[in-house]
Write a structure and sequence with these properties.
The protein has 642 residues and is an alpha+beta fold. Helices cover 63% and strands 13% of the residues. The strands form two sheets. The chain has a six-stranded antiparallel beta sheet with strand order 2-3-4-5-7-8. Strands 1-6 form a two-stranded parallel ribbon. α1 crosses α6 and α16 runs antiparallel to α18.
């Protein structure tokens, strides 16, 4: 089954919620009937949403999706009643059953893989990144929705009035009747819209068909003793002059939505940077665990060989039983350490696999992924100040957390300006102009409008001032100014953290490089020392097992320390790139906001994202960036103009 990715996320979310409630109430305490019904309904509603998008794929390797939603839908097709009663426990069991037979999970066994290929798998399958793509598009839709305030609205209504009342003395004298009867039909229609200046405009027309007991008493050309048709067509405009006036207040929500969309894009970059940096760290943890495991395995093999040699020398009378026992204890010690390092390797592999796939228990852990690439040690750096200021400049241009803080200040500035406008008095200019018509038929009444002989217009202003100084607007302004101060303080805090973090990371890069170089020499020394002892023993000299085991242990510890500093060095480089925000650019993964938006238009259809569409989307990101923004600094995104 090839299902909607979004639907897949929804189902897993529902299952997770159900699991949370079950754990919260205890293993022996069941859900109440009301809670269970609600959770079942939520699960089934998510499953039902997938029905139209479900299709059969040649195999799960091509679709890249779990078949859980499809399995539930098949049950719904065959038995709608039982499908509506699917429990969360059954959904989880089906999910586990799917995992057992998933070809897709087997297809993601990478084996020997370099860092670039591993990162590509992470970008292809990481769930959090896929969710961030949708969040960015949601923010774009929110911006488009705010721009809809200028969309004209057609307003129409009709009313029937049947009225019978007694006249007062004054009405009786004026109408020459003691009872007034009327039966009217009233129709209104108009086009209403908002101008960028904040003016509310209505262009409309209305027709009233009047029938009453006065029309037969007074015969006029307009009624001939029958119905009268009263018509009007005209325009009404209300233009604020102070509060809510002109472009600033009118565009405030659009500007806020635009900046929020830019923030959402930076949050997408931030999540991508975090994911890539964490994935790189996980890859190098695999490398470290592999090397540690390899060193211990070689150490065990050496101890076994030493034990056999000592035992053979004992048979010749050249070694004591104590030496044999000491050599054997060396084997046991190293095998215990080997088990610990094997567990570390398993943990590192599973941590890396979690970035792009589920765990498939049918595949041996040590075969799921192996790091085939070694870390690169950077060249010695000179001029700490120049490196520091260059990195800080890069961070202020590319660090998404810093850019988000800057854009948050823009949001608070917009809110402060709007809050200041809301403290002004309400002074509105109102004007209207129209044409009137009256006759005994609909067409003749509108002929009067065409003649334009009967016009009406009005002009005036309306002033509204809170008598207590507008407590609400004043308080909102104070709150907006405080939020602006808060945003400025947050920006300063981020600047300080970037500054101190950059200082530490640059020094850490250089210090770990020096430590690696130093321990490289230590490893060479202990290797030569161990080889000399082994050569002496091969030559027939008396060399104790203890001396050889101690020398090998020092050699192994030096190698472990060297590889640890090697990984610490590359992780320090990752930390530096993370603070700078340059990690995507350095790996050709950076993406411009406009490119991302255009790709999303093709990616997202009717709120659904298919696995195949997402694969094509990820593959084209780096290529689009290279082709469209080559030689241009697009890291900060584009500023919206109104």
């Amino acid at each position: 089954m090839q299902n909607s990715f979004l639907g897949y996320i929804r189902i897993i979310s529902v299952v997770a919620v159900g699991s949370f409630f079950s754990n919260a109430m205890g293993a022996d305490q069941a859900l109440t009937s009301k809670e269970e019904a609600a959770l079942r309904a939520a699960l089934y509603s998510q499953v039902a949403d997938l029905d139209e998008s479900t299709e059969t794929a040649p195999n799960s390797l091509e679709s890249g999706e779990s078949s859980l939603p499809g399995r539930i839908i098949e049950k719904a097709d065959s038995d709608p009643v039982s499908a509506s009663q699917i429990t969360l426990e059954e959904a989880v069991r089906q999910r586990i059953d799917t995992m057992k037979h998933s070809e897709d999970l087997v297809s993601r066994v990478l084996g020997d893989v370099d860092l670039d290929t591993f990162l590509q798998y992470v970008l292809d399958y990481n769930q959090v990144l896929q969710i961030r793509v949708l969040e960015y598009e949601i923010s774009r839709k929110a911006l488009k929705a705010e721009k809809g305030i200028f969309e004209p609205r057609l307003v129409s209504d009709g009313e029937y009035v049947d009225n019978e009342r007694k006249n007062t003395s004054q009405d009786r004298a004026a109408q020459s009747t003691s009872v007034f009867l009327e039966e009217n039909h009233i129709y209104n229609s108009g086009l209403e819209f908002l101008l960028p200046t904040g003016a509310q405009v209505r262009f409309g027309a209305n027709v009233r068909r009047l029938e009453n007991n006065l029309q037969g008493r007074i015969i006029t050309p307009a009624n001939n003793g029958t119905s009268e048709y009263v018509s009007f067509i005209g325009t009404t405009i209300t233009q604020p002059l102070l509060k809510n006036a002109w472009f600033g207040p009118t565009f405030v929500n659009i500007r806020l939505a635009a900046v929020s969309s830019e923030i959402s894009f930076q949050e997408y970059r931030r999540q991508m940077i975090l994911t890539v940096s964490q994935a790189q760290a996980a890859y190098w943890e695999i490398y470290l665990a592999q090397e540690q495991y390899r060193f211990l395995k070689a150490s065990v093999e050496m101890a076994v060989k030493l034990h056999n040699d000592i035992k053979a020398r004992q048979d010749l009378g050249k070694a004591s039983p104590l030496d044999v026992l000491r050599a054997y204890s060396g084997i046991l010690e190293r095998e215990s350490e080997l088990a610990d390092f094997e567990q570390n390797l398993i943990r590192a592999i599973n941590q890396a696999v979690s970035f792009y796939s589920d765990v498939n228990p049918d595949v041996p852990v040590l075969s799921r992924i192996r790091a085939s690439e070694s870390p690169a040690i950077s060249a010695p750096q000179s001029g700490f100040k120049n490196r520091y200021y260059h990195s800080m400049e890069s961070a202020f241009e590319m660090n998404p957390e810093y850019l988000v803080a800057q854009k948050q200040i823009r949001i608070e500035n917009i809110r402060v300006a709007y809050a200041k406008n809301q403290r002004l008095p309400q002074l509105d200019l109102r004007a209207s102009y129209g044409l009137n018509g009256l006759d005994n038929s609909f067409g003749d009444s509108f002929d009067d409008l065409n003649d334009g002989d009967f016009t009406s217009y009005s002009f005036g202003v309306q002033l509204s001032i809170p008598v207590l100084g507008d407590i609400r607007a004043r308080s909102n302004l104070q709150a907006a100014e405080l939020r602006k101060i808060q945003a400025l303080r947050q920006l300063k805090d981020i600047e300080a953290r970037i500054s101190t973090g950059m200082d530490s990371s640059i020094r850490n890069v250089e210090n770990t490089r020096k430590s690696f170089v130093n321990y490289d020499q230590v490893v060479n020394y202990y290797e030569k020392y161990l080889n000399s002892l082994l050569a002496r023993m091969e030559a027939g000299d008396v060399v104790s097992a203890q001396a050889i085991l101690d020398a090998e242990q020092e050699f192994r510890r030096a190698r472990l320390t060297r590889v640890a500093f090697e990984v610490r060095h590359v992780r320090a480089l990752i930390e530096s790139e993370l603070i700078e925000g340059s990690i995507l650019l350095n790996r050709d993964l950076e993406i411009d906001a406009n490119v991302l938006r255009h790709r999303n238009l093709a990616l997202i259809e009717n709120g659904r994202v298919t696995k195949r569409d997402y694969d094509r989307y990820v593959e084209s990101l780096a290529e689009d960036f290279k082709n469209q923004v080559s030689g241009t600094n697009v890291l900060t995104g584009s500023d919206s103009k109104f």
